[in-house]
Design goal:
Blueprint: E1 2-5, E2 12-16, H1 61-78, E3 85-90, H2 92-104, E4 110-114, H3 117-129, E5 135-139, E6 156-160, E7 162-163, E8 168-169, E9 184-187, E10 204-208, E11 219-224, H4 226-234, E12 248-249, E13 252-253, H5 268-283, H6 286-307, E14 311-313, E15 325-330, H7 338-353, E16 369-373, H8 380-403
Parallel strand pairs: 4-5, 4-6, 6-9, 9-10
Antiparallel strand pairs: 1-2, 3-11, 7-8, 10-11, 12-13, 14-15, 15-16
Length: about 400
């Protein structure tokens, strides 16, 4: 088959047919490799939602009990350190991280580490939206980490543990001292339940249900250390605070925040789905089992990349390579610009056409290539079956481009 790119939208259409190499025999049973919302847990079916508390108030006794159960089971799965608390908040991970920034920042200077799209969003929030005057910025190009050793922990430190758009992660928390004056505020939505994170080094950690556990979107989780909770009680932000972001009522913390009382109305259908995901997580060995599954999945892709003639990891340092959002780029220097985008689009369309892989194109603005989710809800067999299809799609689309 020969494909050509439409000049208007770069979508691909079949122009003519010719004899071509046969595609691989085996397909992934579940071709869902999106980096968010991510693949549902193995065996998931809508029937698991039959027990959802629908048509009932989330503030009823039963509603609050369900929400508190989600909090308690999260704390148990993560084995949170003593004194750490969890709140269910609106707006997914974005809402949770925004809440942390708007409610806690301003008391100290801030160091912001940004090497990913979302890290730069938090940077913009600090500088433009909140207008903080004392902000130090540490950035890096796609594929690299900034110099984490430059962090000053007498200040507040903001960072993303795993960058889904670059496939670059923080390798560990050893760079964060046990004793510090400022707060460490970490967006860990694509790392929690997949990386071994020393939570004693993190004061605020945020994530969403839609990532590693494959839950539904729109709800965020805010994990706070005793030091962060103390800061919340002490801080009086100088900026106007939208109701949806308020963690305090008057001078104290919003009543019931860590007991299942939510700031706005949650979806009890999504709550039930999250509870199902937590139950599945325990069935595969809890946190250690989830981490092992993600590492095994990512290793399949990286081993394939090592043997590939046309792909290389976007993350340069092997120690920083993600175990959930594996990002790869084309090695051919001629495929870094528009020609690379065209090839990526052609390959993605071909894989979609064969129902082999959905939603794996590189994030917009990143070097052309692919972004493959390898979190715990993905099955290793499906990852392994995808690899030969990538080679086939590359060979087919390069041949079509050369023939055209």
């Amino acid at each position: 088959m020969i494909f050509v790119a439409d000049a208007a939208d770069m979508s691909l259409t079949v122009k003519s047919t010719m004899v071509a190499a046969s595609p691989p025999t085996l397909k992934p049973r579940r071709p869902n490799f999106s980096c968010g919302p991510c693949c549902k847990r193995p065996g998931w079916a809508p029937d698991v939602l039959q027990t959802a508390l629908l048509g009932r108030s989330h503030r009823s006794v039963d509603g609050k009990r369900r929400l508190k159960r989600a909090i308690d089971e999260t704390k148990g799965l993560l084995a949170l350190p003593p004194g750490y608390e969890v709140a269910i908040v609106p707006g997914s991970d974005t809402g949770a991280f925004e809440m942390a920034m708007w409610n806690l920042l301003g008391a100290r200077g801030v160091d912001v580490f940004a090497w990913d799209v979302f890290g730069r969003i938090w940077l913009k929030d600090a500088v433009v939206e909140l207008g903080l005057s004392d902000v130090r910025v540490f950035e890096a190009d796609a594929g690299h980490l900034p110099d984490l050793s430059a962090a000053d922990f007498s200040r507040d430190v903001l960072f993303t543990w795993n960058g889904t758009t670059t496939g670059v992660r923080v390798p560990n928390a050893a760079w964060i001292p046990e004793h510090r004056d400022g707060l460490t505020i970490c967006d860990a939505t694509s790392a929690i339940f997949a990386d071994d994170i020393d939570l004693t080094r993190i004061d605020v950690l945020t994530f969403s249900w839609q990532k590693v556990l494959g839950g539904e979107a729109a709800h965020g989780m805010l994990v706070m250390s005793p030091r962060a909770i103390a800061r919340l009680r002490e801080t009086k932000p100088v900026w106007p605070m939208p109701k949806i972001l308020r963690l305090k009522a008057g001078d104290d913390i919003f009543p019931g925040l860590f007991e299942g009382v939510t700031i706005n109305t949650p979806s009890m259908l999504c709550v039930e789905d999250y509870l199902d995901a937590l139950h599945w997580a325990r069935s595969v060995g809890g946190l250690a089992g989830l981490i092992a599954r993600a590492k095994a999945n990512a290793a399949i892709v990286y081993d394939w990349i090592d043997a590939s003639a046309w792909a290389t990891p976007l993350a340069v340092d092997p120690a920083t390579r993600s175990t959930t959002s594996v990002c790869l780029r084309f090695t051919d220097p001629a495929l870094v610009g528009e020609s690379g985008v065209q090839l990526m689009s052609a390959m993605s369309a071909l894989l979609e056409q064969h129902a082999v892989a959905h939603d794996i194109s590189a994030y917009r603005g990143m070097p052309p290539g692919f972004r493959i989710w390898t979190g715990a809800t993905v099955e290793s067999d499906d990852v392994a079956r995808l690899m030969p299809w990538l080679n086939w799609a590359y060979d087919m689309c390069r041949a079509a481009r050369n023939a055209g």
